[in-house]
């Protein structure tokens, strides 16, 4: 059992702290946000993440999980300090290391004995070298500090599951002793540990996210061809995925990826490349392809319903993916902006993310409390997020609530056969449209 501090209690820090306490370590999570810390002390997670409250409460009650806003208190007597603060995108696309730098100085000023610092945050190659220098230069006491890069691969919405069932744990260390310590700490997870040097570990994180983003971007481009060539992207992806070299994951075509990581990490990788005079053309085109993809359903709606001015468009789902309240870089933002710009009224519903959404979405969007309310009086609906509430609902809801249901499904939630048995005019990603007989006749 080790004594561990985790700095930053966002999606990564909180889940890391909770998981490390669950395997027996004594963990103190530090955050500067007093509101968050108050909630967490009461066993309430400040983020929506399935299963998190339960594991959190279990470990608080067992006396292994603590929360504080005080760096002084948080670092005292710790063997290890994990850094899990944000590294958001700057205006120019580079990663903003401000929060990391502050934490490095806080660590230097407050540690009382030898410590290993572990960087969980996603940081450009070379950052760990810079951070350890910053810590050593600012030390208040004569102690030894080592650094380990331990990038995180969890997905939002399944973060707790991923923490206990990841494919690998990457430990990048230039000091064998520090690497051994972090490997030992993680042993109870039973997840394979891959040891490498610090810089390679930093690159593994960016390369993994950029690769997954490329895979999504690729199938999205294929879906746009399928639409034009009357092929079915779901069948194409399935057929491709049967090849073990390709694999069937991350081949779901849709309205582009969003979230706090793929967009910022692809931009940062382009900038990392530029910093060493390399033009990373492939990732640059993934970034621009994704921006275009986020608007494919809006473009389709413009064509199909004859312009958007004065039309009411319902949005089902706002979060960038289901099972999260995270709105960062959600396609819903670009979609709403474009709809409003074209003169449409936008009525939006999300089962969980609506409160958060208001901070990210353009002004002028009306938020409603149910899918029925969003659909009633709408001229058309765009499905943005594939929440189970939408995927599993009876299609008759569209017919009951809308006078003439026109559905633009950005997540391919429904089978074409099933839709064909209804009166819904239906457009999805990379599949043929379904237009009921009476609409065709009227046209
Ligand atoms: N969100 C995700 O799914 C994943 C994120 N990552 C990476 O992990 C890092 C963290 O991401 P998130 O958890 O999404 O961030 P977040 O933005 O949700 O949380 C960051 C937290 O750090 C706190 N904080 C900021 N400065 C602090 C300081 N000086 N002392 C203590 N607390 C401080 C903030 O109050 C906030 O609660 C980023 O580098 C991100 O790229 C990596 C894998 C998955
Ligand atoms: O670095 C990170 O923050 C994390 O980024 C992603 O996780 P996350 O963004 O939480 O969610 P994903 O499930 O990867 O989905 C990202 C976006 O891609 C979209 N997506 C995903 C898969 C797919 O086949 N098609 C597709 O359009 C989703 O709808 C969503 O908008 C990675 O999957 C994690 O491994 C990584 O740790």
From TrEMBL:
SMART domains: UDPG_MGDP_dh_C
Gene3D superfamilies: Cytochrome c1, transmembrane anchor, C-terminal (1.20.5.100), NAD(P)-binding Rossmann-like Domain (3.40.50.720)
Reactions it catalyzes: UDP-alpha-D-glucose + 2 NAD(+) + H2O = UDP-alpha-D-glucuronate + 2 NADH + 3 H(+)
Keyword Oxidoreductase tagged: yes
Molecular-function GO term, any one: UDP-glucose 6-dehydrogenase activity
Positions of the UDP-glucose/GDP-mannose dehydrogenase C-terminal domain: 314-416
Protein keywords: NAD, Oxidoreductase
Pathway: Nucleotide-sugar biosynthesis; UDP-alpha-D-glucuronate biosynthesis; UDP-alpha-D-glucuronate from UDP-alpha-D-glucose: step 1/1
Its EC number(s): 1.1.1.22
PANTHER family (UniProt xref): UDP-GLUCOSE 6-DEHYDROGENASE TUAD, UDP-GLUCOSE 6-DEHYDROGENASE YWQF
Protein name: UDP-glucose 6-dehydrogenase
